[in-house]
């Protein structure tokens, strides 16, 4: 890390995303998380995790910096039982102290998805009520958040910065520069448990109706919303929530 980063600042005087991005461009994931913590303080920083196939790596790096950073997990009502079990395994293995499982609002589900078929008729609306709106509510108390996107995932992720401004708060991408090989090395070095569905061919795991196995040679996210022309749920494109 090549810059002197500010100590915890009131929200009105936080450094800009560009300033932080320049300072952290070559920093390690642990340094980026530590810088986020120093910038806004633990009460104002959250990590958002899907407890998917690669999530253990970011959670491990975070736990080594501070296992009490709040972790937000979107329990959409459509998750695999294996993902819920994996969440509990990682909480115990990594000693995570503040994992918050966030559910969609019941009244919204009753009004907009009474038959639980919105994922089929309008997946963008389904992601909005089950992921985007609950996350916007959950992030309200925070000034910054951490997430696990990587540039090597391509598509809209190919050129993400290390730090950006989502319109309402700072967004840190500690793994922006990390390679697939480095992630694998974290798994091996820390002896992290794997997501239970990985062994049966699910390389990226989201909600049940929108997740399928990937074939040899396919992009790892090809099994998400297969055939629907959709690659993101919308939580990384929301602005100013
Ligand atoms: S991933 Fe599928 S089931 Fe999950 S919220 Fe989005 S559309 Fe709905």
CATH superfamily: HUPs
The 3D shape can be described as globular
Strand order, sheet with most strands: 3-2-1-4-6-5
End-to-end Cα distance: 30 Å
Low-confidence stretches: none
CATH architecture call: 3-Layer(aba) Sandwich
Q: What pattern of helices and strands is seen along the backbone?
A: HHEHEHEHHHEEEH
Please tally the helical runs, counting DSSP H or I stretches of 4 or more residues. Answer: 8
Give the averaged pLDDT, no decimals: 92
Beta-strand percentage? Answer: 5-15%
What top-tier CATH class fits best?
Answer: Alpha Beta
From the alpha-carbon coordinates, what is the Rg to the nearest angstrom? 17 Å
- Bound chemical compounds: iron/sulfur cluster
- State the CATH topology: Rossmann fold
How many DSSP E strands?
A: 6
- Helix/strand-derived category reads alpha/beta
The number of domains: 1
Note the main sheet.
Answer: 6 strands, mixed
Query: Share of helix among residues?
Result: 25-40%
Oligomerization category of the chains in this entry: single chain
Features:
single chain, 241 residues, alpha/beta, Rossmann fold, 6-stranded mixed β-sheet, 8 helices, globular, binds iron/sulfur cluster
Annotate the secondary structure layout.
Elements: H1 17-24, H2 29-40, E1 45-48, H3 55-65, E2 71-74, H4 81-94, E3 99-102, H5 106-112, H6 118-121, H7 123-139, E4 144-146, E5 163-165, E6 170-172, H8 180-189
Parallel strand pairs: 1-2, 1-4, 2-3, 4-6
Antiparallel strand pairs: 5-6
Bound molecules: iron/sulfur cluster.
Briefly, what is this?
This protein is of the alpha/beta class and 241 residues long.
């Amino acid at each position: 890390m090549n810059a002197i980063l500010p100590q915890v600042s009131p929200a009105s005087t936080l450094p800009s995303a560009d300033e932080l991005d320049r300072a952290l461009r070559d920093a390690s994931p642990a340094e980026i998380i530590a810088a986020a913590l120093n910038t806004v303080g633990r009460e104002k920083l959250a990590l958002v995790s899907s407890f998917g196939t690669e999530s253990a790596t970011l959670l491990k790096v975070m736990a080594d910096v501070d296992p009490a950073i709040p972790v937000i997990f979107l329990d959409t009502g459509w998750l695999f039982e294996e993902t819920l079990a994996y969440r509990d395994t990682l909480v115990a293995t990594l000693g995570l102290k503040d994992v918050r499982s966030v559910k969609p609002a019941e009244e919204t589900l009753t009004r907009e998805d009474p038959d639980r078929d919105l994922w089929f008729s309008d997946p963008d609306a389904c992601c909005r009520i089950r992921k985007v709106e609950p996350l916007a509510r959950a992030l309200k108390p925070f000034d910054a958040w951490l997430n696990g996107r990587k540039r090597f995932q391509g598509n809209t992720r190919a050129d993400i910065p290390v730090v950006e401004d989502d319109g309402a708060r700072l967004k840190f991408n500690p793994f922006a520069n990390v390679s697939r090989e480095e992630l694998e090395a974290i798994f091996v070095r820390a002896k992290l448990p794997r997501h239970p569905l990985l062994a049966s061919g699910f390389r990226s795991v989201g909600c049940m109706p929108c997740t399928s196995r990937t074939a040899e040679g396919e992009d790892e996210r090809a099994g998400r919303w297969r055939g629907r022309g959709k690659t993101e749920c919308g939580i990384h494109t929301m602005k100013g929530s």
